[in-house]
Specification:
By secondary structure, the chain is α+β, with helices and mostly antiparallel strands. It has three helices and two strands. Helix 2 (36-47) links the parallel strand 1 (24-32) and strand 2. Helix 1 (10-20) runs parallel beside helix 2.
């Protein structure tokens, strides 16, 4: 089920959405910035072979974070 979130409680609900994913996770955002906590959750889901798709417009990632995201999402 799609959820539309405002800034209040965004981190909490985003973490909950990631944790609750058991087959597929699709995140759509105009901006992308990944905290260490979200990075760990996404890494855990990737290890569980959850289909992760992230659609974004503008990112605020450092080069190391960008490389991590690219390597995680391309791994098979």
């Amino acid at each position: 089920m799609a959820k539309f979130l405002d800034t209040a409680g965004l981190g909490h609900y985003l973490q909950q959405l990631i944790n609750d994913a058991n087959e597929k996770l699709i995140l759509i955002s105009p901006y992308l910035k990944i905290s260490d906590r979200l990075k760990q959750s996404l890494t855990d889901k990737d290890r569980m072979k959850i289909d992760i798709r992230i659609i974004y417009g503008k990112d605020e990632l450092q080069p190391a974070e960008h490389n991590w995201l690219k390597s995680m999402l391309v791994s098979e």
